[in-house]
Write a structure and sequence with these properties.
The chain is mostly helical. Helices cover 59% and strands 0% of the residues. It has helices spanning 5-25, 31-50, 63-81, 88-107, 126-146, 185-204. The radius of gyration is 19 Å and the shape is globular.
């Protein structure tokens, strides 16, 4: 997974910050929010550790099988949780991507810890390509959902927007207490978008 040091440290910072925010989200009063945040925190910190430049630290050979076991267990947990919500399927795909990268690092030669993986004439492996397509689509879709609806002067609603006097999504109505910043859906979505971008960057180095 280890590419140039500068991009590696950027990935470490992005994933660690995302993981830290997910830990704060685990203090939510909503049980489903806490469960999702726990899995995302594990993913964020796992990706941060995997992205550390090899010039600084090269994990011992046994670390990659441990990664595969940990995220394999996280994937099984996400598969079980998917019975109550399809959004857990995204956690399953993320865990599968982490297992895939860990296995790739396990079987790669020692030089792969300092350079991006090259596959020669074989091209991009099928699983890597499928994961790249999935996370590219996920990043684009999540990014579009984060775009705020433009307000129209004079109180005329934008096309498809709520009628005048009805609060937009994410804006609490009068008399309704605002959600804590750890429970705001747009921040959680931005958190997942950040991890999706980081996952894309890591998959591209394989």
């Amino acid at each position: 997974m280890h590419g140039p040091a500068s991009s590696g440290w950027l990935l470490v910072a992005l994933c660690a910050a995302t993981g830290a925010y997910c830990l704060l989200r685990m203090r939510s009063s909503v049980e489903e929010q806490r469960r999702a945040a726990g899995g995302e925190a594990l993913m964020g910190f796992g990706m941060a550790a995997m992205a550390v430049p090899a010039a600084v630290f090269t994990p011992p050979p046994w670390a990659w099988p441990v990664y595969a076991v940990v995220f394999g267990a996280a994937g099984l947990r996400a598969l079980w949780a998917a019975r109550s919500g399809r959004h857990h399927l995204h956690h399953l795909v993320g865990a599968a991507a982490m297992v895939h990268m860990a296995v790739a690092m396990t079987v790669a030669p020692a030089s792969a810890h300092a350079h991006a993986h090259g596959h020669g004439s074989s091209g991009v492996p099928v699983l890597t390509g499928l994961l790249l397509l999935y996370f590219t689509g996920y990043v684009l879709l999540t990014g579009v959902r984060l775009i705020p609806v433009a307000a129209v002067a004079g109180g005329v609603p934008a096309a498809g927007g709520p009628p005048t006097g009805v609060p937009a999504a994410g804006v609490p109505a009068a008399g309704v207490p605002a959600a804590g910043w750890g429970d705001r859906p747009e921040l959680a979505r931005a958190c997942r978008l950040s991890m999706g971008i980081a996952m894309l960057a890591m998959l591209l180095t394989m």
